[in-house]
Specification:
Blueprint lengths: L3 H16 L23 H10 L9 H16 L5 H20 L13 H28 L4 E2 L5 E2 L6
Antiparallel strand pairs: 1-2
């Protein structure tokens, strides 16, 4: 049984088809995404996160977010230029951890503040190792006959005398 409402809608669709408004639509002739996959109850949130490029970490409870940040801390401070900036980054993270510990919420996950001195020590060692690698690469380039910049800013070849 069709109502007058259904008939009106069908008439509008039919006239739009005749005008060609449904021709050359994006995705025409392509399979529907996820058609052959089993049903996933959270398909909408996954597609939203992917479409909006939102990191999945934002959906985690606070203690797990803090644990992830603690795990990623060495990589985050690796490129910081000064020891003070490393200390500031670790102090800011520790402040967030302490704030969480004062009023915990979510699952019971052990989260402890990060040792600032240990993080700075590891940062120093990483910088020293990276500097040693750069020097070794420069020495290797010198001995290979690659043009090197001299003390006065001029280019010279290692095998040529000045």
């Amino acid at each position: 049984m069709t109502t007058s409402w259904d008939a009106a809608v069908e008439a509008q669709i039919r006239s739009a088809q005749e005008r060609g408004e449904f021709d050359n639509l994006p995705g025409a002739g392509k399979p529907i995404p996820g058609r052959g996959l089993p049903y996933d109850e959270s398909w909408w949130i996954k597609s939203f996160l992917e479409r909006e490029r939102i990191p999945g970490d934002l959906l985690l409870p606070t203690p797990l977010q803090l644990r992830r940040r603690v795990e990623r801390l060495p990589g985050e401070v690796r490129d910081l230029p000064t020891e003070e900036s490393v200390r500031a980054a670790v102090t800011a993270l520790n402040r967030e951890i302490v704030d969480f510990l004062r009023a915990p919420s979510g699952p019971r996950v052990v989260v402890r503040p990060v040792n600032v001195e240990e993080t700075v020590r590891v940062w120093r060692e990483e910088r020293a190792r990276a500097a040693a690698e750069r020097i070794a690469a420069a020495v290797t380039a010198d001995s290979a006959g690659v043009p090197v910049r001299g003390q006065r800013g001029r280019w010279w070849l290692p095998w040529r005398r000045r």
